[in-house]
Amino acid sequence: MYEWHKQIQIIVDEIDECIKNRNGEAITLRFLSRKLGYSEFHTTRKFKEISGMQFRDYLRHRKLAFALKEVRDSEKSILDIAFDYGFSSHEAFTRAFKGTYGVTPSEYRKKPIPVALRTKINPFDRYFFGFGEIGMMKSTDDVKIYFVTIPAHKFLHIKNSESNGYWDFWQKQSLIPGQDCETICGLLDSIKGILDDDGGSESNSGSGQIMAYINDPDGRLCDWGIPRTECYGVRLPFDYKGEVPPQMLMIDVPEAEYIVFEHGPFDYDQQLRYNPQS
Hints:
Elements: H1 3-20, H2 29-36, H3 40-51, H4 55-73, H5 78-84, H6 90-101, H7 105-110, E1 144-150, E2 153-160, H8 166-173, H9 181-189, E3 209-221, E4 227-237, E5 249-253, E6 256-262, H10 268-273
Antiparallel strand pairs: 1-6, 2-4, 2-5, 3-4
C-alpha cells in the first residue's frame, strides 16, 4: 500500500532538488521513471492516482513557483529566468506565468502581490498514515529548554475556533472557499519577508509557515480549560506594508518572552526506510 507513496515522494524530492540545481535533464519523465525502474506510463498513472494531478502539470507549476521568487527577488532578466527554468522563450514563460498567476512576470516584478503557488506535495506523510513519530528523536536527553524574547511583529493567518488539531483544522478549512490547505500554503509561500523562512521548499516551519494558538473567548476549550482559536500563517516584520489576501487576517503581536522546547532534527531518511508491514 505504501510503496508507491514512497516512490512518488522520491520523485517530488528529486524534482525540487533538480530545479534548485538547474538540472533540467534529470527531471524528465523518462529519467525519473527509469530511476524508479518502471515504465513512463505506469509512473505517470501512479503519480496522478496518488497526487491527484498530472506529472507534467505538477512539474510545470513547481518550476513556475521557483521562477516567481526569482522574478520577485532578483534583478536577473526575465529572459534569463525563463531559460533557467526550462522555458523556450520569453513569450512562452510569460504565457505560462500569466495563465497561472493572472499577471505577467514584468507586472509582478513591479508590484508583487500574494498569489497561490504550487507548493511541494508530501505523499508519504508519517502522520497521514498513522506512523506517529517515526524518525523523531525519542530521547529527552537532547531536548533544550530556554527562554527567548521575540520582538513585535505581524501575524498573517487564517483561523478556526472549532477545530481540534492540525488535520481537523485543514478538514474544516477545506469547506470554506479559498481557505483550503493548498490555496493558503501557496499564498503564504509567495509572500516576501517571512521572518521564519530558512529557504525550505516545504510548507512547514522550514518555509516559515506555522500552526499557532490564540487565546480567544470565542474559541474552543482546550484540555486545560483555556478557550483558544487555532491559526495557520506566517510572522512578518512589524513594518510590513504588503497586500493582505482577502481571505486572511493580519494582527499585531507585541514583544514578549517565550519558552522554547528544542529537539533534534527529524530524520526523513528513516521515515522513507520505514516499513509498517515489517
